[in-house]
Amino acid sequence: MSRAERVETFVSFYGPALMKATEDYPEEYFYKGPDVAGVVSRMRAAFISGSYNHDGRAIKAACKAVGIKHTRTAMEAFFNG
């Protein structure tokens, strides 16, 4: 499986987690529901290129969903197979 395919797997959990985080913690996110898709799209590209910040509730939730630690090292290992 390629990095892009593994990123898609991760994003399938990240997108819903980000939507939930923006609803549950609106004070932490300046964007709202309709803007989440654009953020997910930009993060998808960042995950592929490796230029992402791994902080945040949604990334932590996505890491948990795919069964990895919430660290950049674990995320890179997951993305690179």
Summarize the helices and strands and which ones pair or pack:
Blueprint: H1 3-24, H2 33-49, H3 57-66, H4 72-80
Helix pairs in contact: 1-2, 1-3
What does this structure look like?
The protein has 81 residues and is mainly alpha-helical. It has one domain (3-80). It is 72% helix and 0% strand. It contains 4 helices and no strands. Helix 1 (3-24) packs antiparallel against helix 2 (33-49) and helix 1 packs across helix 3. The longest helix is centred in the N-terminal third of the chain and has 22 residues, at 3-24. The chain starts with a helix and ends with a helix.
User: What average pLDDT do the residues reach?
Assistant: 96
Backbone CA Rg? 12 Å
H and E string: HHHH
The low-confidence parts are: none
- Most strands sheet: none
Which geometry do the CA atoms define?
globular
Structural class by SSE content = mainly alpha
Distance between the termini: 7 Å
> Got a strand count?
0
Question: What attributes characterize this protein structure?
Answer:
globular
Q: Quick recap of the structure?
A:
By secondary structure, this protein is an all-alpha fold. 72% of the residues lie in helices and 0% in strands.
